[in-house]
Amino acid sequence: MNIKYAYAVINQASGGTYESNSALTAYRILSAIEREYTEGSETVAYKAVLRQLDGVHRLQAQLEIENGKVVKANVEPEFKEQVEKKRQEEKETGEDQ
Length: 97
Description:
five-stranded antiparallel beta sheet; 5 strands; 34% helix; globular
């Protein structure tokens, strides 16, 4: 199986997907979704997954918002580690400016 993007952030209701090869970008997408939907009264659920060569999607993070309130937000340790690693790389190269 050929994987174009390693990470996907998936809307669990509509199946709409944001894709990226960076854990940090996937994390930033989830953060932007959280900011957008906690300002209103909508109910949404998103998950970030890591696509594997065997076709399996491994859950990396999950965000559920009901009526504008976060009711569930989980980040798997390996995903958090990848996000922090990429943040550190950006700091070292000055890309975080």
